[in-house]
Amino acid sequence: MKVLLIWPxxxxxxxxxxxxxxxxxxxxxxxxxxxxxxGHQVKILDALxxxxxxxxxxxxxxxxxxxxxxxxxxxxxxxxxxxxxxxMFTGYASDAHTCARLVKDVNPDIPVVxxxxxxxxxxxxVLADHNVDIVVKGEGEAIFSELVERLINGGDIFxxxxxxxxxxxxxxxxxxxxxxxxxxxxxxxARHLLPMDIYFKYFRLYDEYCMRHPHLGIVTSRxxxxxxxxxxxxxxxxxxxxxxxxxxxxDELELLVRDYGIxxxxxxxxxxxxxxxxxxxICDEIIARKIDIKWCTPNGVALWALDEVLIRKMxxxxxxxxxxxxxxxxxxxxxxxxxxxxxxxxxxxxSYANSIGLxxxxxxxxxxxxxxxxxxxxxxxxxxxxxxxxxxxxxxxPFPGTPAYEVFKKEGLLDEVNNWxxxxxxxxxxxxxxxxxxxxxxxxRAQAEFTNRRMRDFLNPRRLLSKIHSREDLRYTIGxxxxxxxxxxxQTRAKEGDVKLWVHEYMKERKR
Length: 512
What we know:
Elements: E1 2-7, E2 10-13, H1 26-37, E3 41-46, E4 55-58, E5 61-64, H2 68-78, E6 82-86, H3 93-106, E7 112-115, H4 117-121, H5 123-127, E8 134-136, H6 141-153, E9 163-167, E10 170-173, H7 196-206, E11 215-218, E12 221-222, H8 234-237, E13 242-243, H9 246-260, E14 264-267, H10 276-288, E15 294-297, H11 308-316, E16 319-327, H12 331-337, H13 343-355, E17 359-366, H14 373-385, E18 390-395, H15 403-410, H16 420-427, H17 436-457, H18 461-465, H19 471-493, H20 499-511
Parallel strand pairs: 1-3, 1-6, 6-7, 7-8, 11-14, 14-15, 15-16, 16-17, 17-18
Antiparallel strand pairs: 2-5, 4-5, 8-9, 9-10, 12-13
Helix pairs in contact: 1-6, 2-3, 9-10, 10-11, 14-17, 17-19, 19-20
């Protein structure tokens, strides 16, 4: 059977100035691998990556990616039996629906299936579009494979577990089929179906904070047992955590080093270190096989599972940068979030990571519905005092399907929301105490206060020398400090409170 999987273009609405970034659609690549294993012919169309040079503008919108005609040409030439479309982000959901319409324009009898975080959290919203037949809730490998098998055998495709369907005008929620328990049973992503040369080109252009190139992201586990109010991953992975075996993980690392020459990896798990023993074993396996790589954890690590022994082992196996998901430096806001971080322990772990030469980053969020000035000030102060090398301050975007969204809705703070791309892209919502513009001011102030303090700290030779243990470390340290100084210079030129402006200018300059 012929299966077409589509990653849509991206359309942003004014005043969102962000340039969409290229990323490998690992979810589609996993589904494709499962289908190929069963003998099906699969094509993945990454309509964003393949059309990054194709930018169309209209009244209040900008679209990046393949044109409707180019997407339609692929559908016509491939002649799929079924089409799966990814809809990960609420702000860009309209592009998935455009692709669904194009499929039905070619052949209204082709079943259109949509999956991803947005679709899983909002199946009724997705199925309001009559070009969509089925929504997959949760992880798609087993569900989509079952759906394709029923198509082949003439079975009922409208009763597949973990799907939501529209049948005879009625939306039907089928019972859950559960989650894949043994992740090692899933084949490695079908990266051979993707335009890897395009990804490497753009990763090199944009990811200048990486130590080595080429680099790739890899997923070693799924899910997170925490219940943070802002997190949308539970609509896909539930509240359980499942990890691949250390051997399976490192087998994939070796394959990617061999086949693509990868020299650095991002472990993009939501909770890489949740199982401390597994994390230790992965590091041991990398060391035992003498795989010369660098790696980092951009999505953060489970602080409660970290200790100095594990951090040391991570560094010995090639880790050079750790991200700590602190979120807030205020205890009351931490309780609202549902976090159980011991801020004193986090500070101690960060200090140790710095002392052995790791680069450290903290991620923090402002703009919770009941958060006042004191809480934001506590967060800024903690970001500075915890001593991470860098800090990233975000404004909360209440994703549909999350507890935070329900709170904003209950408080009447979503009544005027009509631009999800802007809201979820960092624009934020009005809260009980701040307007969106005031939050942008606080975000700019937080970033400026932190950067000013850390620039002074970087003048201390002892701090920088602690990062340098090789010529490679020296080159990276010089580069990272130079980039930080340039970023700060651009920051001071931007209008106060308009963080988006200087980020946008910086991204445009790098793209040129």
